[in-house]
């Protein structure tokens, strides 16, 4: 199940609720307590959990619920609504425009799955009829060029990179220019992964962004890194204008709560999720089905 443990624990709290014969204040509090503990243990930020708890409490007044109305159903509905509110800001995510040159830049921590995700994203649009290309602007990590080139050739997507040019800004600009002239509709630029403390790499990311002027910046976040997600997301958000988020590794044993908190912090919409190492392991993100799946 997606988000493994968290999903199981949330659905177990709600299953328990459906077994109760009478839904009184105590049962309601117990259920809410279990839900909040499950979220905290899955690394969702305590501030968000508190807010969720208060909102659910405020929305439900057991005494006032008319006889005949299903209290369990009502509690479930409110919990689902509040979980959705954690990650859905009702902002329409950016989407590329057909028959135009769209430039998308990928940023994220090293190891988050950024290079794999660039390829998945490119492959997804190629399969949907877009003229797509990949640019490797990571001149920092040895092997980045080969990795993206190999990925690109596996999915038969044109690729640009340089073994000799060490300035990522130059590589990014050259790649974008070449594909723009060739009327590519979607040019995807992979940048160097970094650690949140690496100021120089952040500056590089900013320089690339200022020179290629991407239509969208996608932040790739690994669901498995827990609480650290939120800090990293804040660090990235403070430097560049993150337009959307892709959460990776949701197939594993990720607790996932850290990613949820990161999304709540950046207030950027999730557009896709990564669910495996293959290029097809990629799904369009939809909030309601995601939360439904989480609740089992
Ligand atoms: P980068 O350093 O951020 O560019 O990360 P890579 O793209 O090199 O990915 C790091 C590792 O994560 C690789 O072994 C990928 O196969 C793996 N990976 C990427 N996305 C996913 C995913 O959605 N699920 C799983 N299980 N592994 C992933």
Keywords:
single chain, 296 residues, alpha/beta, eight-stranded mixed beta sheet, 8 strands, 50% helix, 14% strand, elongated, binds guanosine-5'-diphosphate
How does this model look, in words?
One of its GO terms (cellular component) is cytosol. One of its GO terms (molecular function) is GTP binding. Its main location: cytoplasm. Keywords: Cytoplasm, Endoplasmic reticulum, GTP-binding, Hydrolase, Nucleotide-binding, Ribonucleoprotein, RNA-binding, Signal recognition particle. There is one protein chain. The chain is of the alpha/beta class and 296 residues long. Helix content is 50%, strand content 14%. Strands 3-2-4-1-5-6-7-8 form an eight-stranded mixed sheet, sandwiched between helices. α1 (4-19) packs antiparallel against α2 and α4 (71-87) packs across α11 (287-294). The radius of gyration is 21 Å and the shape is elongated. Bound molecules: guanosine-5'-diphosphate (GDP).
The percentage helix is 40-55%
Tell me the structural class.
alpha/beta
- Major sheet details: 8 strands, mixed
Q: What is the topology, as strand order, of the major beta sheet?
A: 3-2-4-1-5-6-7-8
What are the low-pLDDT stretches, counting only 5+ consecutive residues below 50? none
The 3D shape can be described as elongated
> Gyration radius, to the nearest Å?
21 Å
Average pLDDT: 88
- Beta-strand content: 5-15%
Q: Indicate the multimeric state.
A: single chain
Domain SRP54-type proteins GTP-binding: 269-282
GO cellular component, one term: signal recognition particle, endoplasmic reticulum targeting
Main location: cytoplasm
Function: Component of the signal recognition particle (SRP) complex, a ribonucleoprotein complex that mediates the cotranslational targeting of secretory and membrane proteins to the endoplasmic reticulum (ER).
